TrEMBL record, chains A, B, C, D, E:
Cell compartments where the protein resides: Cell membrane; Membrane
Matching PANTHER family: CORA FAMILY METAL ION TRANSPORTER (EUROFUNG) (PTHR46494)
Protein name, UniProt field: Magnesium transport protein CorA
Annotated TM spans: 262-281, 293-313
Function: Mediates influx of magnesium ions.
Sample GO molecular function, one term: cobalt ion binding
Gene transcribed to yield this protein: corA
One Pfam family of this chain: CorA
Annotated keywords: Cell membrane, Ion transport, Magnesium, Membrane, Transmembrane, Transmembrane helix, Transport
Family the UniProt entry places it in: Belongs to the CorA metal ion transporter (MIT) (TC 1.A.35) family.
Amino acid sequence: MIRCLSYSQGEIVDIEPNIISEKINNKNLLWVDLENPNDFEIKILSESFRFHPLTIEDCLHRKQRSKIEDYQNYYFIVMNVFKGRKLEKEFINSEIFIFVSKTYVVTVHWSKMELIDVIYKKATVTTNIFERGIDFLLYSIMDGVIDDYFPVVDEIGEKIDEIEEGIFKKDDNVVYNKIFTLKKNMLKLRKIITAQREILNTFLRHDFTLIKEENRLYFMDIYDHIMRLFDLIDTYYDLLTGTLDLYMSSISNRMNEIMKTLTIITTIMMPLTLITGIYGMNFKNMPELNTEYGYFVTLAFMGLIALWEILYFKKKKWL
Amino acid sequence: MIRCLSYSQGEIVDIEPNIISEKINNKNLLWVDLENPNDFEIKILSESFRFHPLTIEDCLHRKQRSKIEDYQNYYFIVMNVFKGRKLEKEFINSEIFIFVSKTYVVTVHWSKMELIDVIYKKATVTTNIFERGIDFLLYSIMDGVIDDYFPVVDEIGEKIDEIEEGIFKKDDNVVYNKIFTLKKNMLKLRKIITAQREILNTFLRHDFTLIKEENRLYFMDIYDHIMRLFDLIDTYYDLLTGTLDLYMSSISNRMNEIMKTLTIITTIMMPLTLITGIYGMNFKNMPELNTEYGYFVTLAFMGLIALWEILYFKKKKWL
Amino acid sequence: MIRCLSYSQGEIVDIEPNIISEKINNKNLLWVDLENPNDFEIKILSESFRFHPLTIEDCLHRKQRSKIEDYQNYYFIVMNVFKGRKLEKEFINSEIFIFVSKTYVVTVHWSKMELIDVIYKKATVTTNIFERGIDFLLYSIMDGVIDDYFPVVDEIGEKIDEIEEGIFKKDDNVVYNKIFTLKKNMLKLRKIITAQREILNTFLRHDFTLIKEENRLYFMDIYDHIMRLFDLIDTYYDLLTGTLDLYMSSISNRMNEIMKTLTIITTIMMPLTLITGIYGMNFKNMPELNTEYGYFVTLAFMGLIALWEILYFKKKKWL
Amino acid sequence: MIRCLSYSQGEIVDIEPNIISEKINNKNLLWVDLENPNDFEIKILSESFRFHPLTIEDCLHRKQRSKIEDYQNYYFIVMNVFKGRKLEKEFINSEIFIFVSKTYVVTVHWSKMELIDVIYKKATVTTNIFERGIDFLLYSIMDGVIDDYFPVVDEIGEKIDEIEEGIFKKDDNVVYNKIFTLKKNMLKLRKIITAQREILNTFLRHDFTLIKEENRLYFMDIYDHIMRLFDLIDTYYDLLTGTLDLYMSSISNRMNEIMKTLTIITTIMMPLTLITGIYGMNFKNMPELNTEYGYFVTLAFMGLIALWEILYFKKKKWL
Amino acid sequence: MIRCLSYSQGEIVDIEPNIISEKINNKNLLWVDLENPNDFEIKILSESFRFHPLTIEDCLHRKQRSKIEDYQNYYFIVMNVFKGRKLEKEFINSEIFIFVSKTYVVTVHWSKMELIDVIYKKATVTTNIFERGIDFLLYSIMDGVIDDYFPVVDEIGEKIDEIEEGIFKKDDNVVYNKIFTLKKNMLKLRKIITAQREILNTFLRHDFTLIKEENRLYFMDIYDHIMRLFDLIDTYYDLLTGTLDLYMSSISNRMNEIMKTLTIITTIMMPLTLITGIYGMNFKNMPELNTEYGYFVTLAFMGLIALWEILYFKKKKWL
């Protein structure tokens, strides 16, 4: 699907793809959005815009990392977009490919993106965005991409709290498994954010002329958001490592508890059993056996031993 | 709540908010403090001072990280302020937002801050602060913010000592739990201090004109304090990791102790029990049973075995 | 084996080694490929091309790390080429040695390389490659080398998934062993990619004149591929460390399970055995023995004890 | 206590504090040493030397980190001095505060320092030090401070060897405890050395005019010593971490040994006990009981079982 | 022992120490080698060459780290030389001290060094070395020093393979001990190589005039060798850490195995023993005891229980 907006002298027009080339030459401001483009629509990239074959190839081959490349008269930007908010499973992300020059923005993506739809609608309705220039349009898109990461990161924070609680409650259902999946997703997320930070770094360099000085502040704002994402992910990652230690130590503690039970029972029962064994022997001459109260004395003696041991364990704080 | 101080030619005046704009134009030195401002007071930021909408938005949305941003004719600074000294629970911090130009300082915060009140009072009473310039006022505020972290960090040190002692005393009440909460707080604290160090780095660059050369030394002093905080937190963090190892090793040691007890008891009791078992068998023809002293000899023999084992364990240092 | 291609004015000729010197002086574009060269063919490097003895020595001694060296009128590049796709065993790589100036590329390798054969064939058939210049030929070779690493890295990803699954299935056949071998290979791979990234860094510096501005983009593309490899390897390495933790925790969990079984059995059986021991003693005067239902009462009592213990363990979630 | 040395035209004079100001103006070389100064002596710093209040405050508040600060006409240096050589307890250090300009050195310290006394004596006796300039005097002091760290670091090395040996000898008295205390001290020491390295870095910058080119080499020598300290501490720290692993693995090994003993005894004794249990049953019809050699055959059989098990364990290398 | 070679106009002469000063002034190329020098020979350094006292002191005090120092008219280089190839014990290294200017090289070492002898012999026999200049002589020495490290590093690789194999073979003789000693040596080696890399970094800076442009390539070659050493040591160090994990996990696995054996035996034997206990009680009224086949039924029942348990453990994969 292809959508084109042209802006010139305060007027926004929804144009047909076939007149794109003409608009480019007229120096109109232009936003072309390609959602899941077919072969014909892809051709517009090479024929109307004359983008470098390498970049078009990049658009076709997905699984790109975020980057920015300078092609003299335009920049080619890839941004990873978070998609689907289920942290239980493996984390999925898609890409948005952005071509941007001083007069146009071309966005290519292979799945419907709500954030693009929202901005597109807004750009159609008011002239607010185009008025401030092509760089402000770019800002709106990038800001949307970055802000979409916050709910994910917040959810990660909640997940960690959940895991931590689970450990204290000794609720054992595959805790480590959860930690591991979360770690996997955070590693992925961290790589994505790192790559996107590099893009912003390029933008904020003072020799980057695409961005007007008055709009620079907006990009600084995105940068600030990315840094906050970074801080959060870093902190959460360290916390996650902490919960793992917590989990391992809780396993060790439980082991200790189990061993203590075993040891206490064994240590109390074994000597008693030995005594019964002794008086169960069949020797002819065992004087104790024939005494009147031997049995009761023995039972009492066994009781004393047990008591003494229990007191000993109490003292050792095993009970 | 809004408070405004105006300084001009050695005189400090408490002014009304509605004449702020006028004072700005007159190049008077000005400190405007907004504590938990209402919508009307917030408007002063945009209308009298004409601050950038992005910065005002930042003031409204809390949970910012410390940063400094250059808006040509003023700087926008966010500083995290430590709040509430309970380390047991999760660590809480609030923000102070500072707008600073060559002639005014505007501080915005959403809760009462003692450190601001102290400086405000001092600035009202003596001309000491304003006399040395707006940058000295800024220094006073920042110094207060940073110095508030020292008691927290000192408390962390004491907590670690406490935990360490608890481990040696084998006092088991949720030690790891404590270590984990402390770690969490230190991670957070570290991020905050790192961000604030960056602000000071910006201040101390020689091309930073807001600060007069004679006041530079004061900011170097803050920097030095931050570095000390850093050193302390780093060291404590490493120590905390050390106590965790200590704790794990103490668990292992206790496990060893428990296992030893179990093994010693089992190893001594089992052979004795076997012997009693043997003489408890009902075979017709068991010559030992009919000897006069068989029972006593057997008891003595069992005693010898036990003794031999005890000596063996002594030698092996298990006892 | 030696192969030489000469290109001049749109024509590609397969030339004899003995006229190489002549072609060099005529400023023809030249590609000389030496596959497993004999002593005579090696001599061409020193005599026709007058390469520095140190570089020729490097070609003869294998096990080089990737590097680029500037010899004023030519560059000497070593690249590690992945060879053989069996990750189970230790990872093997060979080298390709490339001498490149503005007019020639000389490639030396000690084993047949499919990627060279493919490019050679392509260069013979169409003028596409030579037309764009010697630097494009270099790009084609380097791109082939780098792209050969992707299947390996993908395979590593699959291996990790396999190992992870094996841990959850409690399939114990030498899991750690596999993790260890994989780690070994990844360490090696990482070193190789790091060294190759440095080469690309040198290429992309703006003062590197060998590459024409129009072909620079292609080398940026290679750089981008390397960065992707890097990201993947880094992520996989962290994941692998994660699986190791997972494995260790699964061992600990199994240990816990075993200990629980032991403790439950012991704790239930021992008191019962003690009771049977008591009534197995041979005291003359044991009133219970002579009661009519003593035996059955005792059995019932033992049953109750066992039941009580089972309930206790259920409550403690050990069962 | 205050001591002042004045040097001028080859003559060294012990002067009174009250003529310090005069000597400063006369451009005599001057060394003023304040040991545990009283309020009156502190006043000299502010009144005669006119040092900045911030630096004087630093002198009064101890627990400073090593640093160098540039106050236009003099430098303020803080150096941590090692004090007391008992590594068992927590590591103590004090500070020496140095004010240095082209014509004077002022040293302030709160406890008697042998290294200062030594240099003071030397400076009184010969003109060797003052002749080479104020910077050489500074070098002498700093060199003394740094060299004092070597015996500590050497002692750490010996301690580690001691701990390591203790582990192999299975000498258990609080080993981990020792490792932990040592780690604590090394962390502290590392911070100190790092801060001092930064001072030297400042000194060796070529735009640092306080030091004459001919004396620069001496400061390079100090730098070299610091680097050696660094190397040693780093290596020892890594070794210490290694000994911790060694200790943990030795605990695991001992646990294994204990468990083996337990398992062997249990595995041998239990089946034998079962057999005696069987022939201890009171069934009327148990044919074996009435055979002539049943008892002896049973004993022999039990012996065989035990033997077979022992051989089995030998094969499994548990014995 | 002192040896001096003088080179001038294609002629190499073995000269006497007493004419060194003269040769220095004549601008002859000169190599003076001091092996284990006596006091008289040391004096040559200060009197003929007028080297700085600090450097001569460095020569006398051994245990230096590799470094390069610029003394205006000469450079002072310390290089650590590997000595003795026994990795079992602690790693020993000695130093070679090199003074180099544009016209002479002075080497000082305290033990016989084969690599020096080899180069000295070569320099005596052919003019190859001196012809290419003093810097080539320096290269020859440094190259020899670095190349001496390769056999050590290769040996480390073999040791690691050996340790790894030992773990799989469950060959227990002090494995961790070996890992620890190896780690210690690698730490030391790594520090040495790092320091030597820094020297080469200084050499390869373009403003380093001692080295002629045509000989620069040779030093790049040494640098390349050092980088290879680095890569190898890094990889081996990571591998060693891996083997440690492997070892710990093998201990855990063995523990698991032991615990399993214990649990299986206990779990099978205890219930059987309980049954024999029951029928060993002396109650008057136990109907089963008087039945004809009670004994055999009981034995069969016990057999069934044992069988059922074994099947259960098989299912749980404990057997």
